[in-house]
Amino acid sequence: MSLVFAIFTPVIAALLIPLLYKRVSAIHTGWFVLLIPVALVSLYATYIPPIIDGTTYKDELPWIPSLGLSFISYLDGLSLLFSLLITGIGALVVLYSIFYLDKKKEKLGNFYVYLLLFMSAMLGVVQSDHLISLYFFWELTSISSFLLIGYWYTKDRSRFGALKSMMITVFGGLMMLGGFVILGILGDTYSIRELIAQAPDLVDHKFFVWALVLVLLGAFTKSAQFPFYIWLPDAMEAPTPVSAYLHSATMVKAGLYLVARFTPIFALSEVWVWLVTGIGILTLLWGSFFAVKQTDLKAILAFSTVSQLGLIMSLLGIGSIAYHVTGDLVTTFTFATFAAIFHLMNHATFKGSLFMIAGIVDHETGTRDIRKLGGLMSLMPISFTIALIGSLSMAGVPPFNGFLSKEMFLDAVLNLKNFDLHALDSWWILFPIIAWIASVFTFVYSLYFVFHTFRGKHKPEQLPKAAHEAPVGMLLSPGILASLVVIIFFVPNFFGNTFIKPAVAAIQPLAYQVPADVGFTIKAWHGFDSLAMYMTLGVFLVGYLLFKTIPKWSPIYKTFPTKLSLNGMYDGLMRLGDSGANRFSSIYMTGSIRSYFVYMFTAIIVLLGGTMWIKDAFVISYENLAPIRFFEILISIILIVGTITILVTKSRLTAIIALGAVGYTVALFYILFKAPDLALTQLVIETVSVALFLGAFYHLPQMNKHEKGKEDRGFRLGNFLIALGVGVMVTLIAISSHSQKLIPSISEYYKETVYSEAGGGNIVNVILVDYRGFDTLFEISVLTIASLGIIGMITLRLAKKKGDRKVENK
Amino acid sequence: MKTNDLIIQTTTKVVFYIIFLFSIHIFFAGHYTPGGGFVGGLLMSSAIVLLLLAFDLKTVQAMLPVNYTVVTAIGLLIALATASGSIFFNVPFFTHAFDYYNLPLLGKTSIHTAMFFDTGVYLVVVGVTMTIIQMIGGDE
Amino acid sequence: MEILMSILIGFLFMAAIYLILSRSLLRIIIGTGLLSHGTHLLLITMGGLGGKNAPVLSEGVTDYVDPLPQALILTAIVISFGVTAFSLVLAYRTYKELGTDNMSLMKGTEDND
């Protein structure tokens, strides 16, 4: 099966979902949906062996060939790992959702359509080689995330969270597009492959850093890095399967993917190294610190996700130092990249299971408020076991996979001491310290999450529902993930060789041509001389003490002012944008149609007149003029008299008849100017128009002149001046356009071919129905729309409310 | 409003058919001499408007029980179908074709796909004009 | 003749725009009618008025007037009929609903639109 087709499979399948949902109500729609990720994960699994050998796959589908735009699916180690995560976790999440979402109460059709849309978009992001199609899929993930967060759209919080995530990630997406365009211009290609090959030439360009910062903005907003993380906690309003899938396992990792994918290009710049590492480690600390403050189970997990994403981000940053060093250090720093990808995989397993457990707790007790929960261990023993495994892995305790990658992280941070550039030789020590503090808080919130939910005193009177263990089907997915957490700990190198090495080879192509060259092994035991091990022991000790004393020190959170918080700033910015836009547009959007006419006509005078003046475009030529005949003068006089009658008359009947007279004189002009078709049409249409006006006559208002009297003199004068200006302008244009024939008329072609090509004799009619048939087709469509509008206006009466819509006549 | 104008009613009965036939003539002549779907359609509508002026709305509706919205729709469909018909012959949208045939009674006649398109235009113009006039005239 | 026509067209535009800028609904509609007449005449003037023969093929004739403006105008005439009819109905429905034809009183406000 073609790879590009595989990307679009979910969204194509999504077309069937509403139908299945409507017609097959006996079976939960999720069972049908489940087939898709299962099929895709098996498809991608077949690519594992060749990719380990260093093969890459490429598949192309033209999209807009004239712009060189195509969907290019490029599958290497990194893309494959992400594709497997997306489809694998996707399958588990769909399975979980079957039990989580009630088939009778929920709009499953919508839910699964959005979910499949997201799946396609995410696969597109990680496989696109073309920057613009990458951007396209990127925004599609934002949109599907918006739809999924707002799934329970009747809740205010859902809509608020959906909008917030959309505002922030789309802002980042647009920045990223800017970066892509700069890259595309610098490298004269939009293919990531080709850009990587050119990277050494691009790095010195003065716009290179701009591209770098803009692309990073996209990555940071998507991966919820400081200070853009604020959308992620609000995104927790989504149904829990969505939180587990989009907001912990896949979509928020798109930013990490982007950073990894662009490392071979941007890592050549030192700005990249410091930005990615610095922001990452700051996010790690910030997220872990504030996670302990949260009282909502999912909010704890959201902040924990923010912090873990920061961890992976900083590891990727440290890994990119490999581009700045030589010798053995290349291996040392590349190991950080290895650790990043490893932790990314581990995080998907333990965080996925934790989210699902949070969902189960919510589902079975009716609340996620950790202050009301407690003592669930005996009631929900299986959930407790899974939660314990996930939490301890997150805390970095053996024998779970989190311990391995946390150890590798501490190692990598300590290795920064070997990279002494730009007088930072003493500053590096900050990184291990921050990392250590963050690890302590990670330990604290992990214990807080599991023990405050499952241990302590059971408070059944505070729970909306009587707690009991979840059905087996619901425990299946988190159970699978939790067992992976344990399995990875015991056979880490199997996963390392199969998934991580090919991905690292893709991120560090300069050092490793094929995955087989990457020689890393993962060890649980580093020996007594390993500083990281002592740091971990310290984390356990201090972390446990802090956990026991949470009530004593938690008041420090109250010292942070809410108004100055990032959320407060976001809200303020949104309010400012709203009121500012409102105030700005109400300056010129007066609601009076006359104002708009004045703008338009003034623009005609100023723009056309100005252009004519500057370009010296006015030409008058007395050659080629048609002779003036007696009839023409006569008709002109009739026309002028008719028009003046309309202007001065006070009776609407006179005005209508005068308008008809003007129409008939125009028809006479057509006869004189050899336009028989026009003359015929004009005559008939004028007749019908007058009939129309007379038909509506009894309903029409009197010809009130609302601008009588002295006070309106200025008003009338202004109108007159504008009208005079436009009139003069049109006259000048008409004279100039006749006086200079710069381009021969295309009518010559029509005249020559009308008989041979179109088989007709009346050129005007042939133009209408043949040469320019499109115009005519649209014209009759417009006519139809107008008639439908009239039917609508007349037959559908507005419900009249007495009094409030009547406006007093002046 | 009931009108009782014998002269105009009698004349209308005759003139209506003359205008009607003229509109058909001008429609078919359109490809070679002045005329075509627009003028033809408008003439047809003006004939009906004349009827409306002479008789009242109800009488005319009884005489010509036509739903003009449907006429509009049919016209638009014919036009669109003619335009898209060319797709099936693997030529671009809106490519017209014509040929000459010897028909009984009429002799050598050219048949254009453009004429079918023009029929659509004719029907839309009649439909739209009459819808508007009926709507306005019939509104209380 | 072209110059005379140009001035005439300018006059039509001026009258039309003066009517459109006024406050009365009916005057605005009549103004748009005049405006379309002016535009049609402008189009045909741009194509030149000196042609000897109508653009209908006949034996031995080569100098036809420019058919393209005529085709454009034909489209425009019918469209402007539709627009006039539409705005006419819009006007009288508005008049019926709001009880005024004074545009300056119809201005929407913040809380009532």
From TrEMBL, chain A:
GO terms for molecular function: antiporter activity. GO terms for cellular component: plasma membrane. It comes from the Bacteria. Keywords: Antiport, Cell membrane, Hydrogen ion transport, Ion transport, Membrane, Sodium, Sodium transport, Transmembrane, Transmembrane helix, Transport. Residues 128-419 form the NADH:quinone oxidoreductase/Mrp antiporter transmembrane domain. Residues 65-111 form the NADH-Ubiquinone oxidoreductase (complex I) chain 5 N-terminal domain. Signal peptide: none annotated. It holds the Pfam family Proton_antipo_M. GO terms for biological process: proton transmembrane transport; sodium ion transport. It is found in: Cell membrane; Membrane. Residues 637-702 form the MrpA C-terminal/MbhD domain. This is Na+/H+ antiporter subunit A. It comes from Psychrobacillus vulpis.
Automatic annotation (TrEMBL), chain B:
The chain crosses the membrane at residues 14-32, 38-55, 67-91, 111-133. It is a multi-pass membrane protein. Its main location: membrane. It holds the Pfam family MnhB. It is found in: Cell membrane. Keywords: Cell membrane, Membrane, Transmembrane, Transmembrane helix. InterPro entries: CPA3_antiporter_subunitB, MnhB. GO terms for cellular component: plasma membrane. Residues 7-131 form the Na+/H+ antiporter MnhB subunit-related protein domain. It comes from the Bacteria. Belongs to the CPA3 antiporters (TC 2.A.63) subunit B family. This is Na(+)/H(+) antiporter subunit B.
Automatic annotation (TrEMBL), chain C:
One of its GO terms (cellular component) is plasma membrane. Pfam families: Oxidored_q2 (PF00420). InterPro entries: CPA3_antiporter_subunitC, NUOK/Mnh_C1-like. The keyword Chloroplast does not apply. Gene3D superfamilies: 1.10.287.3510. Keywords: Cell membrane, Membrane, Transmembrane, Transmembrane helix. It is found in: Cell membrane. It is a multi-pass membrane protein. The chain crosses the membrane at residues 6-21, 28-51, 71-92. Belongs to the CPA3 antiporters (TC 2.A.63) subunit C family. This is Na(+)/H(+) antiporter subunit C. The lineage of its organism: Bacteria, Bacillati, Bacillota, Bacilli, Bacillales.
